[in-house]
Design goal:
Elements (H helix, E strand, L loop, with lengths): L2 E3 L2 E2 L5 E5 L2 E6 L6 E9 L3 E11 L25 H18 L7 E2 L13 E9 L4 E5 L19 H16 L8 E6 L4 E6 L6 H14 L2 E5 L6 E5 L7 E4 L4 E4 L10 H15 L6 E5 L7 H6 L3 E6 L2 H13 L6 E5 L7 H6 L5 E4 L7 H5 L9 E6 L2 H13 L3 E9 L9 E8 L1
Parallel strand pairs: 4-6, 7-21, 11-12, 16-17, 16-19, 17-18, 19-20
Antiparallel strand pairs: 1-5, 2-3, 3-4, 5-6, 8-9, 8-10, 10-11, 12-13, 14-15, 20-22, 21-22
Helix pairs in contact: 1-9
Length: about 425
């Protein structure tokens, strides 16, 4: 069996090696290690493989904390030292900026780490009664599979939610709709833990009694969802506190519904918003745009500085929530919101919004290419703080800003929003030259 030396890690946390003219992507291998491997997918120019034996181990290799790590697809980097994970993500960011964007930041920001375990306050758990096992499985999917991992615990979920996994499986076994409950969405707030049950069939009176007993015993609030997002409703108890997260530095508290988008890691979100606001440096006399604003995660802290801010978001439902949150925090006078499809932005549409001194941009994985392409001398802000969940699209958009729109990339760095996964959250600052 052939052995190779791992040269780098890719954006999915796989070891990258070369053998006989092919690139080999090897799960479970780390930089500098010599390993043997077994390929499960072969193409003309590359192969996907798993590590079969480690002949020379990296000093950064650690024992995974989770007993399900080898099976579960929820994490891909628990075998790599926590601080080394962040260094790898920083390298991925820099490599993407240089290779795709052909740009180099003037300053590399110190990475933000956050908590290593129990951080994931949002999750989507799959549920399935498996006849061959004679039981229900609740958890994440197995690696490279549609099967649900047989999990008793999860180290990245809060301890209380982790302990509920086998109990939820037992609960499902008792329900009349055992085969009609494919998913449970978790939302952990500051004063309540919510579980949204995706049910494909009506609950029987016996089901309702079981669910209420479960909620009382484990101090959670249950919601149900029968079809789309508009069918999400609280089930029991109806007098539970609202879901909220707060940012004490800015005196902001954000109510939200359990299926509305919020960051999965509230501790890291606080640190990320704090860094973004420092880099943006909003002033009381300034006009600022917050693109892809969601429910106002950055908008309201910006408004707290005294600047006038317009939040723009594609989802009308999230715009409504953002307006409610601005009112809840006494910021309606400083923060306004507008629903607009930012993936269809053009120069004329951007000019209609008026001129802004600064932008905060926090797009989904697809990035903000059309928005960047739409910048003209009349609409160009002096500073853009760009928060990214995909270094490849950040790099692509940076190329437009630097090489076509007259900006310099002043700084960039990573924020470890998703420890033990290959997900890279980053932030970059652009200044008009």
């Amino acid at each position: 069996m052939s052995s190779v030396i791992i040269e780098s890690l890719d954006q999915e946390g796989r070891g990258v090696a070369h053998y006989e003219g092919k690139v080999i992507f090897i799960e479970g291998a780390l930089i500098g290690e010599r390993v043997t491997y077994a390929s499960f997918r072969k193409k003309a120019s590359f192969e996907n493989a798993v590590t079969t034996k480690i002949l020379k181990s990296s000093f950064t290799r650690v024992q995974p904390k989770c007993v399900h790590f080898d099976l579960c697809g929820g994490c891909s980097m628990q075998h790599l030292d926590f601080r080394a994970q962040v260094a790898v993500k920083q390298r991925i960011l820099e490599d993407n900026l240089q290779r795709i964007g052909k740009v180099k930041p003037e300053v590399i920001l110190a990475p933000i780490y956050g908590e290593a375990w129990g951080y994931r306050q949002r999750a989507r758990l799959s549920v399935r009664h498996v006849l061959k096992k004679g039981k229900t499985l609740v958890g994440f999917h197995e690696k490279r599979s549609s099967f649900i991992a047989d999990m008793r615990q999860c180290e990245i979920l809060p301890a209380k939610i982790s302990k509920l996994l086998p109990l939820l499986a037992q609960l499902n076994e008792q329900l009349s709709i055992r085969d009609q409950l494919p998913q449970i969405e978790v939302a952990v707030g500051e004063h309540v833990d919510v579980l949204v049950l995706r049910i494909m069939q009506a609950l029987s009176p016996a089901d309702e009694a079981l669910l209420k007993q479960f909620a009382d015993t484990h101090q959670v609030q249950l919601w149900t969802q029968t079809k789309g997002p508009d069918t999400v409703h609280p089930f029991y108890p109806l007098d539970a506190p609202a879901l909220t997260y707060s940012m004490p530095e800015f005196g902001v508290t954000m109510p939200y519904a359990p299926t509305e988008f919020t960051q999965v890691n509230s501790t890291m979100n606080r640190l990320m918003v704090s860094r973004a606001i420092r880099l943006l440096a909003p002033q009381a006399q300034e006009s600022i745009a917050d693109f892809f604003c969601g429910l106002g995660n950055f908008t309201l802290p910006i408004a707290r500085s005294g600047a006038q801010v317009l939040g723009i978001e594609g989802s009308a439902a999230l715009v409504k929530r953002a307006e409610e949150n601005a009112a809840y925090n006494g910021l309606s006078g400083k923060a306004q919101f507008r629903a607009m499809n930012l993936f269809e932005m053009d120069e004329a549409g951007l000019l209609k919004l008026g001129h802004f001194d600064k932008w905060l941009v926090d797009p989904p994985r697809d990035g903000a290419l059309e928005l960047m392409r739409s910048i003209t001398p009349e609409s160009a802000p002096q500073r853009i703080v760009y928060v990214s969940c995909n270094p490849a699209t950040l790099a692509r958009d940076a190329e437009v800003l630097v090489h076509l729109k007259g900006y310099a990339i002043k700084a960039a760095g990573v924020m470890n929003m998703f420890p033990h996964t290959s997900h890279v959250e980053s932030i970059a600052v652009f200044e008009k030259i």
